[in-house]
Amino acid sequence: MSSRLDMKSKLDTASALLKDLKAELAAYMESNSKQETVEEANLRDALEEPETKTHGSIKAAVASAGKELENTKLNIEKAKTKSDCLEVESASLKSELEKEKSGFVTFQQREGIASIAIASLENELNRIKSEILLKKLQEAAQDAEGAKALSQMAQAHLQEAKEEAEEAQAGPSTMESRLRVAQKEIESAKASEKVALAAINALQESESATNYEDSPAGLTLSLKEYYDLNKRVHEAEELANMKVADYSYTYITTLIYKVLIWDNWFSTTVGDLYGK
Prior knowledge:
Pfam families: WEMBL
Mean pLDDT: 69
Number of domains: 2
Order of helices and strands: HHH
Shape: rod-shaped
Protein name: Protein WEAK CHLOROPLAST MOVEMENT UNDER BLUE LIGHT 1
Low-confidence stretches: 49-53, 212-221
Keywords: Coiled coil
Helix content: over 70%
Strand content: under 5%
Family: Belongs to the WEB family.
InterPro entries: Web
């Protein structure tokens, strides 16, 4: 850009100088023409008045006029040479200026192409940014939905745990009721044992008192039958105790198992939820 301005400035200067030189040459030619006219008139006067002019003065005037003419011709040649040089330089400067103009036009075209390419790249960049932002928003929405689902699942398990805890709190009273029932069964078995023992004693006493061994209507109880009856009473008592122990063990084991499962699930689920 600076080079183009310099070339234009030089061209303007050369054009102005050429114009001035042409004006000066025209003025000089006009002045020289007038001077030649005056000299020719003087020469003519000198030739027309031989009586008043000597031969020497005429010759001197002719020589002076010839010298002036030669000087004028020389100056004209110099001016023409200088004018030709200026014209050549002006043409060269014009050619350089045209080259600079062409280069500037090419630069503007390239700059326009570059601007279009930059605008295209900016549009592509904005499109990519929009796609990335949309993808991130979709991923965030999916993560939010997943977190919501995990939260709902955790709430459901928490509600289940609360219900199981309430059942566990109500469990002791239920177990206590069952224990009372089993205790009553034990007491009933013991009472049956006492009744059986009392019946055995009564029968033995009755047998000893009446000595009624051969009577078909008599009721006798052998020692073996007594032991069998006593054994069944003890078995009934042990069975009742086993029922109580088995129920207590099963209930406590089930409760512990549920608590362990809930604790493991809660730790894993909450860890995954907050790990994100």
